[in-house]
């Protein structure tokens, strides 16, 4: 006698439906998966110490080469890079997007990742910290963050959203006039050049950028943007580097800081803490860390060097012609004042200004701000005449 399995009609339908759902998850590229993926998350204490914990996410989408958009407005979405992947198009982030790059895997964003001003983008690594993201952008676009605002009526499209990088290796090269990580090309039709206060700059601004652990190499290789910070006509928000190794530069023509403000852009707040190693430089007219060219041109627009805090870290900062190593870029107004610089703990800081600029303080034509050294070793070189 043969055994028979009898399905009630309701059960038969349920099994078929489950099979269809499973087929959808298997066949649709980037469909949400159910197998857990581990990632490392950093918790930062009041003393800037970092504690790492391993967590797992069960619901996520797998990144594919065809992706052009991640996330949904108003929602939190997770993505995982589980194999070497090259994105064929620029990806736009919406809502809150969390990206996990598995160990030994590289994600290449050949035309960059756009994080608009109303979006949040966090990249996580795994236990070994060997996941990597390489991003390159076309002219006027940041490699990671802002897009080009110059052609649109809404200049804020060049502004960037919130970026957090935790325990990964990132290489980001922005296009002409844009940051490696930060703002895109600002809108010159609505922005004031130099000391012009009749209009307001829109676009090109960077929001919060946080780097915890890992290694970051970010550049604006054609100039006018920053390695990390604002794009052309753009200022930076809050930049925090904690227990990380960072190299940031503005190449070729310069005019933007290595870290801070782009051309005509000021620096917001830069904090380098907890054993970080940072090298920041620019080719001309801006600070290594601080404001860009003309970033301190008009005190009424609050375009100053902002605040730069260095604690228990090694920093090498080199300004371009007319720019301080740490402080402000070159400016036309001798009534402008560079922002505050504070160095403490066991830091080792080397700051070299360009011609007519301070090692730490004011760039050409800019009055030096408050500089506090509460610990560490500081070597600062200024060159030429600097107004004090």
Description:
The protein has one helix spanning 9-27, and strands at residues 32-33, 37-44, 50-57, 60-62, 69-70, 76-81, 85-87, 91-93, 96-101, 106-109, 113-114, 120-124, 132-136, 144-145, 162-166, 169-173, 181-182, 209-212, 215-220, 228-229, 238-242, 245-250, 259-260, 269-273, 277-282, 289-290, 307-311, 314-318, 326-327, 340-344, 348-355, 360-361, 371-373, 377-383. The strands form four sheets. Strands 1-4-6-9-12-15-18-21-24-27-30-33 form a twelve-stranded mixed sheet, with no helix packed on it. The longest helix has 19 residues, at 9-27. The termini are far apart. The model is unreliable at 1-31, 150-157, 190-201 and 297-304 (pLDDT under 50). With 388 residues, the protein is mainly beta.
Q: Top keywords for this entry?
A:
ten-stranded parallel sheet; 388 residues; mainly beta; 38% strand; single chain
